[in-house]
Amino acid sequence: MPEYLCTTLDNGLRVISVSMPHHHSAEVMIYIGVGSRYETAHKAGVSHFLEHMLFKGTEDLPTSLALERAFEAVGGSANAATDCETTCFHSRVHPDHITPGIGLFGSMMQRPLFKDMAMERRVILEEAMGDLNETGRQINSDNIIASLLYPDHPLGQPTVGNRPAIERLTLRQLQQHHATYYTPRNAVLTVAGPVDHQEVVAAAEQHFGQWQGESAPAPKPWTDFSPADRQLRWVRDAGSQVSLQLAFLLPGRDSEHAVNLRVLRRLLGWGGMSRLMLRLREELGLTYAVDAALALYADAGTLAIDLAVSAENLGKATAAILELLTELHTSEVDDDELSHSLNCYRCDLDYSRDQVDEMALRYTWGELTGSSRTIANDLAGIDTVSAAGLRQTARELLAPANLRGAIVGPYRTRDRKAVEKVI
Asked: What does the pLDDT look like over 307-325, one tens digit per residue?
């Protein structure tokens, strides 16, 4: 049987069902193809602001409390997230209440009231302040790295925006953004759980069938893969440890290297047996935890390594990370390590079949972005991975010209010199 079923309504809305008959909950999810990379600097943060505003009440449920109570009545609690390319709304819903659950999202997407904008602006400003120190400098390593990787481009802007942009956003701009991007042709609705596809489609037709709108405009592409003038950004900040993030600029998710990058990410920083954890924690005792994260967008991507260390260990930790990366260049992963990592990958894919939210996210995002990531596709991709291929990807992409770094915390001058020397 197919992993999911998809029907496109007459208005262009794609409706997906994922049959998981032995579960006792369902996940209702709707993805909209808009995020921070669709914004100008003048309106930075408008997608995230709009996401917040859709929870402030609709024509059918005129307050945020009425909306929240309605979600609880169907066994759910709605949430949302905005990233560079997408905005996702979702809620766990009892299988007996899937149709009214879909109806609640239909009301949010199509009939928001845009109430209490001044209050929500204050909430979002508080959220943005969490990324700044007492002097107003950016201390969120992800935001700093993005600005280094994608300078003067929307991909380099914080998703939440910045204080001046948040303060000047108007109700009309939010409404225009909603009219432009919240259209059925720019959305995918999914229900995962003990569901019948035709019932899901009928509920979608009932609550979304009258939704109208054109295709959304494309974002500004990223084409600049030239080396950076500045590889590192240093931000002095209070605290007991220094936050270190080293990241590489990568091609997008359709690159021939995409599968190898996902495997390299797991080899480097996925669990206690990953290379970063074994070297930096178990062998050298430099940090409590170290992680590797991979983000692949339509036309660019990032592999980032994150950890927190004491200032006196900053140079040693940086050197250890670069030594591990150099090893990926100079020698192939041995058969035992590669087999172990790929086996863990396969197990994680199987475990995801037990999570209604993971299944909904996988197929909704894949359909929206045109990057189908079925479990069968991922398993087939794993079977193509070889030690020689991983080494080639590392040598081509995890290269000095693609490296950027953000260092935030109470570092000393000698710590900075040590890091810059080893870089």
From this structure: 999 999 999 999 999 999 9
So what's the pLDDT on residue 373? 87
- Report percent pLDDT > 90 for the chain: 98
**Residues facing residue 7 across a β-bridge:** 15
Q: Is 407 helix (H, G, I), strand (E, B) or coil?
A: strand
User: pLDDT exceeding 70 applies to what percent of the chain?
Assistant: 100
The average confidence (pLDDT) of the chain is 97
DSSP character string of 32-45: ES--GGG--GGGTT
Q: SS3 breakdown of the chain: % helix, strand, coil, rounded to 5?
A: 50, 20, 35
Using the predicted structure, report yes or no on whether residue 228 has a pLDDT greater than 80. no
Nearest to 46 by CA among 57, 32, 29, 60: 32
Query: pTM for this one?
Result: 0.96
> Which residues are bridge partners to 112 per DSSP?
58
Kindly tell me if the per-residue pLDDT of 227 is higher than 90. Answer: no
Residue 215 CB contacts under 8 Å (≥ 6 apart), including other chains: 12, 183, 185, 186
Q: Is 385 helix (H, G, I), strand (E, B) or coil?
A: coil
Q: What are phi and psi of 141, to 5 degrees?
A: -60, -35
> Are the beta carbons of 47 and 36 closer than 8 angstroms?
yes
For 83-224, where are the alpha helices, taking DSSP H only?
Answer: 98-110, 117-129, 141-149, 163-168, 171-181, 197-208
Q: How far apart are CA 66 and CA 219, in angstroms?
A: 35
Give CA–CA dist 186/19, Å, rounded.
Answer: 24
Q: In what order do the strands lie in the sheet with 87-93?
A: 5-8, 14-19, 187-193, 26-32, 87-93, 79-82
Phi, psi for residue 16 in degrees, rounded to 5? -115, 140
Q: Is 320 helix (H, G, I), strand (E, B) or coil?
A: helix
What's the pLDDT tens digit per position in 122-135? 999 999 999 999 99
Q: Which two tokens stand for residue 103?
A: 């109806």
Residues 6+ away with beta carbon under 8 Å from 102: 28, 189, 191, 200, 203, 204, 206, 207, 208
C-beta separation of 349 from 379 below 8 A: yes
DSSP states along 221-276 = P----SPPS--EEEEE--SSSEEEEEEEEE--TTSTTHHHHHHHHHHHHSSTTSHH
